[in-house]
Amino acid sequence: MPSRSFSFITFAGVLILAIACSGDNPAGPDVSSQLNSSSAPLSSAIKSDIAAAAGNAIARDLETLIANEAAAVGSFAVFAPVASPAFDGETSSSTPPSNPPAEQPNCSAGNQPGVFLCAKEPGPGDHLKCTYSDEKKLFICVKQEEPSSPPSGEPKPPASNPPSGEPQPPAPAPQNPESCSFNAAALIYSCLKSGEGKSVVKSYQFLDASGNPMEKFVKGATESIHYLVKTDGSESKDNYTSVSHSLRDVTVSGFLGPNRVWNGFASSADTNSYKEDLSTRKYTGLSVDTLKAVTFVDERAAHPYPLSGVAIRVVDYVVVSTGKQVETTTVHKRVVVTFNGTADVPISLGDYSCVLHLDTHKVDGCK
Predict the structure, then answer these.
(1) Residues 199, 233: contact at Cβ < 8 Å?
(2) What are 149-182's pLDDT values in tens digits?
(3) Which one of 120, 182, 214, 224 is most buried, counting C-beta atoms within 10 A?
């Protein structure tokens, strides 16, 4: 689109270059494994690791996409507009964000402290008062204070609600605020957040049925939202370290109909190290992802998982095992997840298949 900013063009150009250099087109035919090793146990371990890593990434990405959609749409459609809406349920630095409810990946924070947009109603332990919006197809939830328990034997004091006009104490300032801006000429929103080993630059643009950019989301007029995300991060645990760089270019369409359909591409460069017993395996390589018609029902509360569509991850890795077992292995795999409307979906690596559980991110049943 001629109105997109230079950053959109740059991201897309780098993404296309990564796809061209990956050695495989994600939409192309299946490819066989290339394992420069005669060790069957090591080969099986590598396949299991790749399946688990790819499955976890795909499940996590789906939740991020849902949160991005809810934040972008909800910031305009549910509450009064703010100068710069944010991603992943967080708000801009002008409005302190609230932590999302525990164990609720289908919730994202609104642009008011203590307010959340949820695809499924949270449990009672999160102390949220929720109201379902038929128009927005989301639960609008407000954080409730957990009452303190009185001393044993004493009755609980009656709950009291302050007058609606009474000012509330300000929320604490965020440790890592998100800085957002709006390009009025190109009609693009951009946000930057860094901290805790990660830097994320995100941009999005609302589009009408003809593909023309819009200033904001308008129900009945906005057909799709185009997202671009650049992430750089690192993580270190007792037996695991990771350094990653990724680019993502995706579009969600169907806002004029009953379904939401995701399509797009992504690329990443990663270095991961695993310590297991007396051996260490270090993975270094590239991956290319694609989403092909991943379709959600708009009624997300009743149907939280994609009805159909495919997520594909093509990986090119060099694996070096040191310690008890010393080997170098080259891996070229095409990982395919086929959605079926449930939380348990097949994930395949050529002739090697497993089950990905979208609710827990776990991969098992490999054979």
Answers:
(1) yes
(2) 444 555 544 444 444 444 444 444 445 667 888 8
(3) 224
The pair of structure tokens assigned to 40 is: 């069957």
Cα(366)–Cα(282) distance, rounded to whole angstroms? 22
Domain total in the chain: 1
Q: What size, in residues, is the chain? A: 367
Domain ranges, residue 215? 6-76+191-364
The alpha carbon dihedral of 93, 99, 103, 109 has a sign of: negative
Asked whether residue 274 is assigned to any structural domain, the reply reads yes
Q: Is residue 153 one of the residues assigned to a domain?
A: no
Cα separation, 178 vs 163, whole angstroms:
32
Smallest CA-to-CA distance from 358 within 346, 340, 338, 344 is with 344
Selection from 262, 359, 357 nearest residue 309 by Cα: 262
How sure is the predictor about 351, in pLDDT bands with cuts at 50, 70 and 90?
confident
Burial class (CB in 10 A: 0-12, 13-18, 19+), 266: buried
For residue 285, being part of any structural domain is answered with: yes
User: Residue 89 carries which side chain, given as an amino acid letter?
Assistant: G
Check residue 277 and give its pLDDT: 79
Task: For residue 11, tell me if it sits in a domain.
Answer: yes
Q: Rounded distance, CA 183 to CA 144, Å?
A: 36
Adjacent-strand bridge partners of 364: 355
Three-state secondary structure call for residue 225? strand
Asked whether the beta carbons of 303 and 296 are under 8 A apart, the reply is yes
Q: Position of tokens 């270090």?
A: 282
d(CA 198, CA 177): 13
- Beta-bridged to residue 138, according to DSSP, are 133
